[in-house]
Design brief:
By secondary structure, the protein is of the alpha+beta class. The protein has 2 domains: 9-66, no CATH class; 71-195, TATA-Binding Protein, CATH 3.30.310. 39% of the residues lie in helices and 26% in strands. It contains 4 helices and 8 strands, in the order ααββαββββββα. The chain has helices at 9-33, 43-66, 95-107, 180-195; strands spanning 73-75, 88-91, 110-111, 114-115, 117-124, 128-137, 140-152, 160-170. Strands 1, 2, 5, 6, 7 and 8 form a 6-stranded antiparallel beta sheet that branches. Strands 3-4 form a two-stranded antiparallel sheet. Strand 5 (117-124) and strand 6 form a beta hairpin. Helix 1 runs antiparallel to helix 2 and helix 3 (95-107) packs across helix 4 (180-195). The longest helix has 25 residues, at 9-33. The two termini are 28 Å apart.
């Protein structure tokens, strides 16, 4: 069973790449100052070089254990691969209350010391709505979209059977998220559950 890693892999991965880059520059500067481009014969040198290469590679492989294929997005679902991200269902009378609780949850959250920012809201009283927020992540802003929908008991019926809440979060195009978007959704759902438990 896949689970969401509690470790923020993206900043660790970027830090390991930074260590590798600094090490490469340090080696180049030493070679230039010595006016020779022969590699040192010290086993310690090669051990350190192997370590700075192995750290980012190892972290990437470990990342695949928690985030298959390093997707750039995540979403709730009826039967998702991540059980923590199941689609929420609430009683019919909570649709507007759920919308307000979702707004409050988003406004209360922050990542890496930066608050989440609501950029779009749309409410249809009694039937649900949509909330879109920008979520800070290392070197980018992810987009989190919350959809609240009242499901009727039958087609063309105005009687609501239950209220469905889905969440989708994505990194900008061309970026891997290292599990960040799944953690965004989990963070929001936990904040929402504290205000309005599922099923109420």
């Amino acid at each position: 069973m896949t689970r969401i890693s509690p470790i923020p892999w993206e900043p660790i991965w970027l830090l390991s790449l930074l260590v590798w880059l600094v090490s490469a520059i340090w080696i180049g500067v030493r070679q230039f100052r010595a006016r020779t481009f022969r590699l040192p014969r010290s086993p310690l040198f090669y051990g350190a070089l192997a370590l700075v290469i192995a750290i980012p590679v190892g972290l990437k492989l470990l990342d695949y254990r928690f985030v298959p294929f390093s997707r750039a997005d995540a979403a709730t679902g009826v039967d998702p691969s991540l059980p923590e991200l199941h689609t929420r269902r609430y009683n019919a009378h909570t649709v507007d209350e759920l919308y307000e609780a979702s707004l409050q949850a988003v406004q209360s959250l922050s990542t890496y010391g930066q608050p989440w920012t609501i950029v779009f809201v749309n409410l249809q009283p009694g039937w649900g709505g949509r909330i879109v927020a920008k979520v800070p992540a290392p070197f980018r802003l992810d987009t989190l979209s919350i959809t609240i929908q009242a499901v009727p008991r039958a087609p063309d019926s105005e009687e609501v059977a239950f209220v469905r809440l889905d969440v989708y979060s994505a990194a900008p195009p061309g970026r891997f998220d290292f599990g960040e978007n799944a953690r965004h959704i989990r963070q929001f759902l936990r904040a929402l559950d504290a205000r309005l438990p599922e099923g109420e």
